[in-house]
Design a protein that fits this description.
Elements lengths: L1 E4 L6 H16 L4 E5 L5 H10 L5 E2 L7 E5 L15 E7 L13 E4 L5 H11 L6 H14 L10 H14 L4 H12 L7 H7 L1 E6 L2 E10 L9 H15 L3 E8 L4 E7 L15 E3 L5 H13 L1
Parallel strand pairs: 1-2, 1-4, 2-3, 4-5, 5-6, 8-9
Antiparallel strand pairs: 7-8, 9-10, 10-11
Helix pairs in contact: 1-3, 1-4, 2-4, 2-6, 3-4, 4-5, 7-8
Length: about 300
């Protein structure tokens, strides 16, 4: 049995990618099962309900198992005992991380907007059947990761995949489909500051230390009015408890591509020079992968 596991604090691509990759492996005649490392968010709940698919089971240990990694190659985002598992495959669309393997593996890492774009192309290459539920999962993940094609991470391969998948899924009004998805994506009602930070938090090793950068996608920055102090306090707590050099969360208005960066930690002073009126605003910034994190690396070095 191969366990297909997405990253910690799973987003829609991580969950959908695990479900889809497991089906790809099954089409090869292999036994595979998708698993998740955390609770699914409201957007992913919306996607699974639309596709009529159950969420993967929760697993935080993969010791002694054979695994495929989906949507990451950083050890910090893998199960804590990943070094006790055998990694057979990787499908990802981020920079190459620090995962090491003992044996050769199958690896598909493309510079596209979403892992599910790669999986869609693998299904086509292998002439495996794409069912309607799989089509809904893949197109939803692509639209989520590319913020309805608005993100700078979006490529023509992502757009082409969605067009073909929409036909399979029977989606005639793509704009209405995207609107419903983005409403679910930006729904943060009732979430605490800690839950917001945790919502899409990624850990990175950098200059011999550990840092975390989260992102909360919003319909308007007004949604987090009154929560800034609580968000800052949560970042301070994480730095103390996890011995982080830096912790940040990107508060991103997906309608204006404006991001407010909330940050704390030993290295925080390196960014103070960019503040205006006590706030660090990042214009035309939608993507953590292609914009936020690369900029932070240059500033924190």
């Amino acid at each position: 049995m191969i366990l297909v596991v997405g990253h910690k604090n799973p987003d829609s691509d991580s969950i959908c990618g695990a479900l889809v990759a497991a089906e790809l492996l099954k089409s090869r005649g292999l036994e595979a099962k998708p698993v998740r490392q955390g609770e699914i968010n409201r957007e992913t709940q919306h996607i699974l309900a639309t596709a009529g698919v159950d969420q993967p089971e929760f697993r935080d240990s993969v010791a002694g198992e054979k695994v495929w990694l989906v949507d990451y190659t950083d050890l910090a985002q893998a199960p804590d005992d990943i070094n006790e598992a055998e990694i057979l495959g990787i499908v990802d669309h981020h920079r190459l991380g620090d995962v090491m393997t003992v044996n050769p593996l199958e690896a598909w890492i493309w510079p596209v907007g979403c892992t599910c774009t790669i999986l869609f192309n693998l299904f086509k290459m292998e002439q495996a059947e794409i069912t309607k539920p799989l089509a809904v999962l893949m197109m939803s993940a692509i639209l989520s990761d590319t913020v309805g094609f608005a993100s700078p991470t979006c490529t023509q391969k992502d757009k082409d995949a969605v067009q073909e998948l929409a036909a399979i899924a029977g989606i005639e009004d793509l704009d209405a489909f995207i609107k419903a998805l983005l409403i679910a994506k930006t729904n943060i009602e009732g979430l605490t500051a800690a839950e917001l930070v945790e919502k899409d938090l990624k850990a990175y090793p950098f200059n011999g230390r550990d840092v975390v950068v989260g992102q909360v996608e919003l319909a308007t920055l007004d949604q987090v009015d009154g929560m800034i102090e609580a968000l800052e306090a949560d970042l301070v707590r994480r730095c103390t408890e996890d011995k982080l050099a830096f912790a940040a969360v990107m508060l991103t208005d997906i309608t204006t591509a404006q991001t407010r960066l909330i940050y704390k930690g030993e290295w925080a002073e390196k960014l103070v020079k960019h503040e205006q009126d006590g706030q660090l605003m990042m214009e035309n910034t939608l993507s953590r992968k292609k914009q936020g994190w690369p900029w932070l690396q240059n500033e924190l070095v």
